[in-house]
Amino acid sequence: MSDSDSEIGEEWEAIHNRTPVKLLTRNDTVVALRPQEIVFDNWSQIPLETRRKAGERMRICAFWLPLLLQRDEPSNPSCWAYQIDLISSDTDDLDMKHLQKIETLEAILRALEKGTVKRDQTKHVIWISNMFNLRTPEALKDAMCWLERTGEPGIRHRVMSLGHPQICFTALHVIFTEFAKYIQQMGSDSVKTMKALNVRSADYLIEKSEEMKKKGNENFKKMQFEEAVKYYSKAIKLYPDNHFIYGNRALCYIRCKKYLKAVTDGKRATLIKPLWVKGHFRFCEALFYLGEVKKAIEANVLARGLCKDNRDGIKDLEDQYEKFLLEMPEPKVVPPKKNQSKKAQTLEPRPLSVNSVHKNDPPPKSKTPVVKQEKQVKNEKTVQSEGSTKNSKPSKSEPPTKNGKGDSSTPTKKKPKNRSPPEVQLNDGDSKAVACIELKVMVQEAHSALTDLRCRNAEQAFRKALIILDTSTAKEVGLSTLDVLLLLYGHAAALTEIGQPEELGEAQKLLEKIKSFEERTFQCLVYYATGRVFLKENRFTVALKQFSDSLQTVKNKITPGKLTWPFTNEIVKETQPDYFKGMLEQAIELCTFPPPPDAICRLEICLCPMKAEIYLTDPDFKVCRSHWLVILQIELSM
Fold first, then answer.
1. Among 409, 159, 123, 388, which residue's Cα sits nearest to residue 279?
2. At 476, which helix (H) or strand (E)?
3. Quick one: which H or E segment has residue 109?
4. Count of other CB atoms within 10 angstroms of residue 351
5. Structural domain boundaries of the chain?
6. Which of the chain's termini has less CB crowding within 10 Å, N or C?
7. Which of 287, 322, 290, 302 is nearest to 403 (CA)?
8. Could you read off the pLDDT of 250-302 as tens digits, one per residue?
């Protein structure tokens, strides 16, 4: 997708430049941080795992407790949050607008954590914080540039979505200042700071909270969800940063069909424990039942990225993702009779699949899952307890479904063969909308996997995206020619990274297909991708020509400009001129001075006529190893 962010950014910056200086200045006391060099030395030596745990607690103490977990008493952070409309003053629940803003705050804090690994970047955060405290207008621009360099996906777009530049200035001012103080404290005395961050509620309060939680669990077993919510709420008052209780209460809210409250509690659980799989599972589930299908799928994809080291948990999230796609509310069904009630076709909180609609038997509203609720009563046992910390799967004690996850009122999966296509007629516009959603999900999964070097996953996702695209025209799903070329390019890149002979051959075919579009500005990427294929085959001479041709087109400024992956704000790195030029120069240097071969083929009729040099890393080395072993022995004997 063309870099629409640049247009938004220019307009936003124009507003920023027109903002009167008086809006960005106040007569508050200016606090500047000047940590000594030893502070940065100490900070850089803190183990990453310790820093991760400290950062988790810092976010809870500085932001999540005063903003979302313990809002009874007014505080500076809560006043700041009201000022920038981060939270609502009317309710403790998050609506979708405020949820998006909280997720923006999450993303900024993630970027700060990622970006302060190196010493120089850490110093820059302190410097930007001081600029904010001095009310320097340039601080906003510098902060945005710094955040972008961390590589946090879509961070500029997220920050700009907060609103007017003055609001963004106020938001980043507090965030950078709090993080800078945290760096100084950890660098000065990490033991003392960790002890302060880990201060919990008094022991007697925690014990009383546990009692309330147990009573909540007992009520949950009896299917008395409203009563369970009351006890969980009392437990939270006593111990507000216990993520387990929020997870339990979120499940109760789902049972009571209070989905917005469940979304809020699911988000709270993930803010307290970002790597807690079950918290993400509840959050995504609540979004799905709320009707925010697209948001649920996006949250699931993000959760899998965060929790990728938890194999069991990832399996649960992957199953949930498949369930979301399978049970996605289908387009409206054309009724067989004109007088058929429209209410009979509306979706219950449990998404209704097209499979369940029969031509002569439309589902009346009176047949909502009452029977399934009775079955659910028999299966309910207990709620998640703290003893299951190590097991991040949805607890067996929770109301199980056939696949052991989620709400038992969820419909069971039906095999495609049981569907009756002739009985259902879909509106063309609705089917295109569904295809567009599926395509967007696949593209997001594809580019995320490619970034994480999960080549097989990326290849599968790009392949599925292109299959979906084959069923519609690019225009119908809102894609330009460059977008289509990017999908083909991404698929070729994933195949190249896999690096097997069959995949490399398929990548070359895709690149030939891209050439057929005759998009002159895209040719530099085709040259580069072709060079990458040859490089994987250790064909350095022909790869050098491709890289050189690509560099020449870049120097001639025949480039497509900065592009983003379709349906996202993620910039394709190869379309950033300076970055791409550096990649090409490195590739050219490698091909100009290639490593020495492991052997030379002396056969008159060579089995690999493309080159005589033999490398143990050749993709087809295993195929010809029986012949090459003889050659290697000859070389050694000589």
1. 388
2. none
3. helix 96-115
4. 19
5. 4-197, 204-326, 449-592, 599-637
6. C
7. 322
8. 999 999 999 999 999 999 999 999 999 999 999 999 999 998 888 898 899 88
